[in-house]
Amino acid sequence: MQNKIKQLTEQLNRYAHEYYTLDAPTVPDSEYDQLYRELERLEAEFPQFRLPESPTQRVGGAILSEFASVAHAVPMLSLNNAFSPQNANGVFDHAETLAFNERVCKDLGVSSTAYTIEPKFDGLAISLLYQNGVLVQAATRGDGAVGEDVTENVKTIRNIPLKLHGNRIPTMIEVRGEVLMLKADFIALNERQIAQQQKPFANPRNAAAGSLRQLNSKIAAERKLHFFGYGIARFDGIVAENRPKTHAEELLWLAELGFSLPQSQSCHELVPSHSGRGLGRGQNSEIPLPSPLPKGEGADCRQPENVCSTKKPIPSPACGGGLGWGQYDWKVCANIAEVLQFYEQMSTKRPHLPYEIDGMVIKVNDLAQQEKLGFVSRAPRWAIAHKFPAEEALTVVEGIDVQV
Ligand code: NAD
């Protein structure tokens, strides 16, 4: 068994190096996930054989020496996973996510708790540091403790504000989120690559990671990248009554500051906020529209009332029968049953989204509860990545050598 654990550790570390450091995976994510789970299971059974360099004990990969390194003031962690296999009739088995909820409720001493559920974007994690409202540094996750300084490349991403908006600009804020390439931009990039007799990319995640880690920021600027914020690591200079108390309030604050969010299921369902400006009802018109509308998504259905108002969203056939930008992709749920319902809806919607996701992230909504739950070595105990069944094996473009 010791040998098996050693062999799996070496194999997974090789795959992680190819994936995180070289942006060139050689196996599909589903294969990596399966081997990872096997290693986790064996390590739990035989903890005496677990190696210190095991991928279960660390985050991400090594950083490239070409970039200046940035030490993260707040570590950039990973997420624990839950899978929901589907039977032949398409019925999901949510046992792992229900077990997560039970653990959370037991540790909090409650019978039920509220969660947010958001897309798990298939891109790469970025940390953005703003001082007095101005973007001063952008860093990749790296190994979680130290990342790469990609500030110049990040400044070319058009939906990242170089200067924050709104009335609640902190003296310092570190925003966390995902850089990705929209599906339509990925297709256009590969068409250009082929026309210029260059290798196309295997998938949008690789294209995004390869573009962001270009030493020449002109190349990064030519590749259209997109950013979605999903969290706040730290901030300063905001009076107590204006601070977010829930994760949903954090997301809405990000929107107020000028970041794009995947549109919410229905903002009138959001937990009404404290008296803080811009977080509750009536402030929703400040939420910016997502940009840009991907090609081929039909007419622009991004009317403000569809974005975040107290009105019900108006699904429009012009937006793919309500499956395009005009619908909402994250939600505050009163309990785990609502979470699972939304997960299933998003699993149907997944192929129609303008960006790639490999699951949904479920987070305890109340920040005080998050703090109580804390962290294990490489992931928070208040969140889980609820993965979707593998959609694709490693992309093979027939007859064409792809850049993986
Ligand atoms: P992860 O991708 O499973 O989860 C953590 C990451 O999720 C965060 O760093 C963040 O970037 C991202 N994320 C996206 N949306 C988010 C949201 N709404 N809220 C919070 N975080 C969000 O963890 P990981 O450690 O980065 O990667 C592990 C995964 O990477 C594996 O499950 C596997 O699928 C893939 N991988 C593949 C290979 C391969 O060779 N194919 C190798 C290594 C890893």
TrEMBL record:
Spans traversing the lipid bilayer: none
Record-annotated active site: 120
Domain of life: Bacteria
Binding annotation for NAD(+): 29-33, 78-79, 118, 141, 178, 363, 387
Summary of the function given for this chain in its UniProt record: DNA ligase that catalyzes the formation of phosphodiester linkages between 5'-phosphoryl and 3'-hydroxyl groups in double-stranded DNA using NAD as a coenzyme and as the energy source for the reaction. It is essential for DNA replication and repair of damaged DNA.
Family label: Belongs to the NAD-dependent DNA ligase family. LigA subfamily.
Protein's recorded name: DNA ligase
Organism from which the protein derives: Alysiella filiformis DSM 16848
